[in-house]
Amino acid sequence: MLNIRINTPLEHFPLSVDIKIPGRGITALFGPSGCGKTSLLRCIAGLHKATQAHIEINGHSWQNSAHFVPPHQRKVGYVFQEASLFEHLSVKSNLLFAHDSNTSGNDALTFEEVTHLLGIQHLIDRMPDTLSGGEKQRVAIGRALLSAPDILLMDEPLSALDFKSKAEILPYFEQLHTRLSIPVIYVTHALSEVESLADHIVLMDRGQVTAQGNIQEIMLDLASPLVLFSKAGSLIDATVTQYDSDYDLTYLSVDGGVLKVPGKQGAIGERKRIRIGANHISLTRSANNDSTIINTLPVTIEKIDITDKAQCNLILTLGEHTRLLARVTRWSTDQMSLNVGDQLYAQIKGVSLVKY
């Protein structure tokens, strides 16, 4: 775990956080613009000296009441919103600028591996002004990785990109997620990026942490702010089991059944993360095959929470271990006399893959 406790004044409110971050995987700092996410990142990097802080990374203290490790002595890879490449240097020279050639060990990323992981082998002789926004950001990430950091900090690295560039770069992020053995802290206010990339999440508002934990669990916590979002939903793990070429449908095995999604979505046996929106689930007491909805799975009501006068949030159990969030009207809840423990069928109107 990375242990981070910070209390320091900001311009409009104090930054007061106490978080524990896994030593591997991607942790998303998520919240509205101006809530203190970037300030927290800067404190971790040492770019902002917090008045009170305990920052411990991989068993090494970077700041406590007795000492403060300056930024240049912290092994941090930092990727900003803008790529900030050296315009007078080629891509190769940019990548090698901070390369730690003395790094050794099984987890050290080589120049060849970084360029391959990020798909930038063909760009190494180009100059930055000839690159697209997505290409520049991939080079910036590569430069940060080649500094052999103990931690990678990413401050809204996709915010300056258009939709097409974001779509192009996300698969490379997933490859890094699989290969890296260091923690990544990823700042964003885009829920879609959190759902696509994060393993762990820290929710922030006005300098305070409102929730933290495993992303799939936080999305199902009825006390979490995420559950109140209009686009709230669930993330579940699935495995590709079949492709029906006649109807162009991929069959995904999940705990408790099989889901069908349009298109060829991967090789047999490949693991996927899928998202099911809370508003995309309707409930019936009997399996109804006379419908255009092709995904119907048996579920049990675990919790019912009345969110407002019009709506209820329900936690549903699917299979032995999987849980789903469903949002239905209070009218429907009363008309169907829904209660905890009821065994129903969830008609799932939309399934989207969010992790490749």
UniProtKB/TrEMBL annotation:
Domain ABC transporter: 4-231
SMART domains in alphabetical order: AAA
Gene3D superfamilies: 2.40.50.100, P-loop containing nucleotide triphosphate hydrolases (3.40.50.300)
GO molecular function, one term: ATP binding
InterPro entries cross-referenced by the UniProt entry: AAA+_ATPase (IPR003593), ABC_transporter-like_ATP-bd (IPR003439), ABC_transporter-like_CS (IPR017871), Mo/tungstate-bd_C_term_dom (IPR008995), ModC_ABC_ATP-bd (IPR011868), Molybdenum_import_ModC (IPR050334), Mop_domain (IPR004606), P-loop_NTPase (IPR027417)
Keywords for this protein: ATP-binding, Cell inner membrane, Cell membrane, Membrane, Molybdenum, Nucleotide-binding, Translocase, Transport
Domain Mop: residue ranges: 290-356
SUPFAM superfamilies the UniProt entry points to: MOP-like (SSF50331), P-loop containing nucleoside triphosphate hydrolases (SSF52540)
GO CC term, one of those recorded: membrane
Name this protein carries in UniProt: Molybdenum ABC transporter ATP-binding protein
GN (gene name): modC
